[in-house]
Structure formats: structure tokens, C-alpha cells
Amino acid sequence: MPNKENRKCHNPLLIQSITTDKFNEIFDGVVLAYDVDIPSKDAKILPGIHPYFGVRLKAKLLLFSPKPNMLIEGKVVKLAQESIHIVVLGFSSAIITDEEIRGEFKYKIKHGEGVFVSRSHKRHVIKVGTMIRFLVKSLDEEILHISGSLNPPHTGNILWLDKNLEDASPSSRSTKKRRENGESREMQEHDTVDGGVFSLDNSHQIKKSKKRKISEES
Amino acid sequence: MGVELATDRAGFHEMEEVNFSDSELVYHVRHALQSVPLGDSDSYDQLIGVLHHKERLAPDEVALLVTSLKALSGAVSCIDMVHHKSLLSSIFGMSLWNYGPDVMDALLELILSLAASSGNYLDCSLDMLVSNFMPPYSFLDLLKQPRGLTRKDQVLSRVHSTLKDIADLVPLAPSRLVPIVIQRMPNVFTKEPLIMIYVENMLRLEGGAIRELVGNMMLVALMDRLVDLDVEIAWEEVLQDDCSKGIFEMELEDMEEPADDVENDGGELHRGSLSRKSLGGNLIAEKLDSLMVLTFEHLESCEAGGRLIEVFETLVLSFQTTVLNAFKSKFAQFVMFYACALDPENCGVRFARMLADFFVCSTFPPLNRMSAVAYLASYLSRGKFLTASFVANILERLVVWCLEYCKIHDGDINPKAHRVFYSGCQAIMYVLCFRMRSMMNVPHLRSQLLLLPLETILKHPLSPLKVCLPSIVEEFLRQAKAARLFTVSETFIFSDLLESELSRAFGGIERLDMFFPFDPCLLKKCDRFTFLAFRLHNFFRNANLL
Lengths: 218, 546
What we know:
The complex is a heterodimer of chains A (about 220) and B (about 550).
Chain A: E1 30-37, E2 43-46, E3 52-55, E4 58-64, E5 71-79, E6 83-88, E7 92-97, E8 105-110, E9 113-118, E10 125-126, E11 131-140, E12 145-149, E13 156-157, H1 158-164, E14 175-180, E15 183-188
Parallel strand pairs in A: 7-12
Antiparallel strand pairs in A: 1-4, 2-3, 4-14, 5-6, 5-11, 6-7, 8-9, 9-10, 11-12, 11-13, 14-15
Chain B: H1 22-35, H2 42-51, H3 59-74, H4 85-93, H5 101-117, H6 119-131, H7 146-169, H8 173-183, H9 192-207, H10 211-232, H11 235-238, H12 283-304, H13 308-326, H14 334-342, H15 344-360, H16 366-382, H17 388-408, H18 419-440, H19 443-451, H20 454-458, H21 464-467, H22 470-482, H23 501-507, H24 524-530
Subcellular location (chain A): Nucleus
InterPro entries (chain A): Rpb7-like (IPR045113)
Function (chain A): DNA-dependent RNA polymerase which catalyzes the transcription of DNA into RNA using the four ribonucleoside triphosphates as substrates.
């Protein structure tokens, strides 16, 4: 995800919608947005039964490609003693089972709804609607379903974590993949993927297709 | 919440005569599940045994079942595809129709947990829900009773709300749902009540909470099914062999009432009369009839909800790809007709323009274009809700096209080569047979008509008057002469011929010269819906009417 300090996507051509909800094998991720640059209008005629024109282009792709041990952010949509259900970016689902919720968190019923409260920090609460940061254990590519974990120490309610931890949550530096003329260069600076926060400034609010709102950092 | 279990009921060994809390129950179930790969399946087998109780459950059996299902919901993370196959197949094989609301809720909670837990179970969960669209065979008779209807409402409302809940937790679930729904559609030979209830569910999805994601496909699949049924009805059952009666035989004296079962000798196109060769006993026709009525009612609710226009777009696309492309539809097109009747200014107009666009576009195959103009002509003639001026404008478009064609082509009569042209001319004449009189009574339409270059087209060396269906030509000439719109010096004597060799030639194997798709619908129930929107003609053969 483009981070706040290191913006590369100034191009107004950036298509700001989620183009497809399918995991793309070629790019190894879900294409969220792309920015196309056509360096030359010269085309090649490609031989074949049906003639095609081939035009070279460069594209920057915004990819959603969670990998094991990455940290990811999403919104809690359902919470029970045995599991927490999360939706990431409005199209990917995640589940954290009770075995993956560290002992620090205790399940309670407060005001009629289930919540997880930290035993050591009473203000650290996870409930339906909370944006949480969690670890990716595995991804089912076919339905974009993530199996996650709240075991690592810096996982939990994002708001609380960002306010309260001195060695702050790994910044929103991200994994970027660029594809240029068929080459791929993986730039992995940190192993975090900002699941929920990727609006760079107000003018780049990415909208979802199918009229679902993006989970915004609350 | 604690649960007491009777000692003589099948249950967990450890659970006899003891009160357990929810989490303890979950713990026991997890333990039972985790013991299976270690060789100990006793508790596991007992659990499956509980799930198989379905006939006339006593209250404590119900309680046990509910408890077991709830405990399973909490233990979903321990359910393993390999070791717990029989448990999973028991769960997914359960039919909500066999139980009361308590068990339904508990079972659906379990299904929801399974669906959201892992990709492995998502499709099975959706499949289980879709298979619950229909009751078990044994339940069919109950459906007619109030008790059955209550149960139906309990089941279906829960099934659809669970589908929505799954979509909330797994946003991609609806796209997995669509192929499952389509694949499980009952075929045309399934009993009518089952088909009806399944389609009801599809329409419920079309109008329901997840409609943005699945609605279009539901409609397309439904139209496809209607077409499947349509194809099964043979043309011979629809048309009678005796074609001595002309197309313009008087259709009905009394236009106010739908004529039910009016006795008539012959006259295949007399409205309401299901003559001896009727579709009455045809099961397929009855299914199609009922389904179309269901569709009509759904269209009405779409219209009431302000959604008809978007729904119509899907219908138009479906019409173009299936009906227009493939074959001569007998009844399915009345779905379009009814939608147009519900909203003439938008849908009605859109449909006509789409057909006209299709006709004039030279990139489409000739047969499709001829089919399109046949639909158009029949539609413009029969759609009572279409204004005369709109019809006049579309007619003008057809005339302009025919005129251009005349200018480009010098040749002589050639039914095959110029069949698209002849079908266009026939369409114009056919529509005028229905509409001429009313148009001539409106001054600005009268002048519009008089300005049409009909003479140039009809008297062109291509001789459409000789090639088009004689009965249409004759009726047109008669009316045109009476209206002083158009006269011919040649006398065309057709001797009451319906068709001729030349018309057959241009119509081709498909007989597109004789295709009037919006002629009165022979499906009884549908007909009652459409008749109000339907224009009948009542002109007499020998009368001299202006």
C-alpha cells in the first residue's frame, strides 16, 4: 500500500475502484487499482488467426496480497467466545479462532454484547465494529478467506495500540509490487500490509465497487 | 443455561443427569471431536446419532438436538474435513422443513459458523441452504394446508436471512452462491409445486438483501428456464393445421371480458378458446403458465418498488441473447410484454427501440433481424399501451430503412436475397392494419402517414406486394384504399390465400413470414394478466370501414 510519506501514485489516471474481487494468479494478489502509462502509441501487429495489435505499457498495480506472518487490519463484524470474524477491505473475510487469541484477552458480556477485554489493560477492548490489527496465518485464495491470529504482542485494537505503544505499530510502510514490462520486482520493506488505511489524502479515497463502503480507520 | 438430559436418551456418557454450562458443552463436543483421530469415536458417534432424529421429536429430544447443535457451533474450529466426514454429511443433509423454529435456528447458527470458518465449508453450507429452498417430497401435500404454509414461511425467511448473514461475514459468498442456485434448479420435468417454490426463492434473492450481487443472474437463469419450458411445447400444439381462416379473422366480438373456455369451432387464433387441440392437458404448458404468472407478479412488485427499469435492462439483455438469437419463442416473450405494459414510457419504449435498432443493424445475421422485426411488428400492433405517435415514429424509422434499401437495390423480385427487406415491408403493412384507422383520425399523425413514401417502396421493382403474405397485403390494401392513403392500379387477387409460394420463400424454413409472437397468449393464467394491455382487432373482412 502506498504509505503516507512515500507516495508514488500522483497520477490522476489512478483508477479508484476495486476492479475485481478475484485473486489473480499472475500478479499473486487481488488487483485493487492500477495506473497505466503508455510510453508510445506505436503498436505491433501480432500474427495469428485473429490479428491483434500489441501495445507496450507500463502499469503500477495496487495489490492485495496477504502472506503468512504479515500484519493486516480489518473490521470486526462478529464476535463470539470461540471466534472473531473480520472483514478486510470490504471484500476479504478473516477468522481468528479462540486458540489464536492470546491469553491476555478475556471474553466478557458487556451491555448485552460479547467483547474481548485485555486483562492487563482494561481500556484495550475488541468488539463488533472495532478495527483490529492481526497476523496472517494463511490465505484461502479461492474465497479470499484469511486465517488469522491475535497471539503476537502488537496485535489488537488499532486505536489503542497506536495510542499506547511506545515502539509504535510498524508504520504504514507497505509491500509493493511493481510490474514493468513483464519484470517483477518485489520490494518488501516491512512485513505489514495496511488493510484498512490506505487513503493517502482525501482526494484519493478509494471507493469499492458494488456499493460497499471501505472500512475506515475509526 | 444448563440442560437436563434424561438418562434413557442417547447422549454423551458423561452428560447423564448433570447440568452443564454452554462452555462446558462446547468443551465436551470438542473433546469428542478431537478423540476421533485418536481412535475413540464413541461420543462422536452418539453425537451423529442425535442429529439423525427427525420424526416427531419429543420436547426433550428437541432440547437435546438444539443443545448439540449449539455446542457444535462453538466447536467448529475442531471439525476436520477428513476425520469428521460423517458428521459433516449429517449436518449438511439436514432439512429445515422437518423441524420447528428452535432447531432451525440452532442448525442455521451452526451452518453460519461453518461457512465463516473456512473455505472448505463455504460451498457446502451454501449448497445446504439452497437445497432447503424446496421441501422434501413427503412435505408437498402439507404445503396446501395452513400448517404447511406456516412452516414454509419459517424455513424460507430463515434461509434467506442466513444467506445474508453469510454474505456479511464472507463478502465473496454471493458470487459462490449464484452457480449453486443455478445448478440446483429443478429441470422442466420436476413437479410443478417444487419448481414454483424454487423460483419463488430465486425471485426472493432477486429482490432481497443481496440483490445487487446476485439479482441479475437470478433473472437471467429464470428467463432461460422459461425458454427451456417454451421449447418443450411443440408448435403443433399451438397452431392448428387448419389455416383456412385468415390472420385477420375477427378475433372477439366482446372485447371487455376475457373469454374463458369459449366454445369455438376451429379458428386457432380466437382468444380464450382453448380448442380441442388445447394446451389444457399439457403439463409443461401449465408449469410455464404458473411460472410466468409468478414472474409477472414479481415484475409488479419491482414496479411498485421503483426498480422495474433496472430489472428491465437485465430482461432486455436476456431477451437479446436467448430469445432473439436462438429460436421463435411461443410464450416467454410475454414477460417482456407485461413489463412494458407496467411501464410504457420507459420499458415500453425501450423494447421497441431495441428491436428497431436490431433490425436496421446490418452486422446482425439476417434471420435475427427478421425475427426482431417480426417481434416489433407484433408488439407495436398489440401493445395497447403504446401511443399512436410513438408507433408512427417507429414506423417511420422502418420506412426510411426500406426506402434506403430500395435506392441501393435495383433488382427484381427475389424472395431469398431480399428477405430482410420483405420482412420490413410486411412489418410496416401489418402494423398499419392495426393502427391505420386510429392514426388517420389524428390530424398530425394523418399528415405524418401521408408523407411516408409508401408508394415508392411498395411499388418498387422488388415488388413487396407480391412477396409478402397475401392476407396481410390484401387487408392493408383494402384499408389503405378506404383511407385514401395508398392505391394500386394493379388488382391483387389472392383468393383468400393466407400465404403464397413467394411468402414461403422469403420466410424460409423458420417461416418468419408467419411469425406473430404477440398474438393472443394461449396460456390461460398469463392471458388474464396481459389481456388488459392487449389490443384486439375487430375489423371485418368485407365491411367497408373508414
